[in-house]
Design brief:
mainly alpha, flat
Length: 84
């Protein structure tokens, strides 16, 4: 992975006021976009999403060189490093 120079960019620095406003906006958006779903609807969404295929042109060349588990590890380590 180091040879491929894969990394996640650092998030932009936000002021406290911007962070609070973003949190309030996210909470409002979440409450508007949430809908109750029973198990049958959840399964319908899962089946539908499982059939979605992205065009191969949308996949960067480096993505074919590492496994999904390797990429997840890169993302998780980066997030953990930002939290500490």
């Amino acid at each position: 992975l180091q040879m491929l120079r894969l990394h996640l960019p650092d998030p932009p620095a936000d002021s406290e006021e911007e962070e609070e406003a973003a949190a309030e906006g996210a909470a409002a958006q979440s409450s508007r976009s949430s809908i109750p779903m029973d198990a049958e609807h959840v399964e319908l969404v899962k089946r539908t999403m499982a059939s979605v295929k992205l065009p191969s042109l949308g996949i960067p060349a480096w993505a074919s060189q590492i496994s999904e588990d390797q990429w997840k590890d890169v993302v998780q380590r980066t997030l953990q490093a930002r939290q500490s």
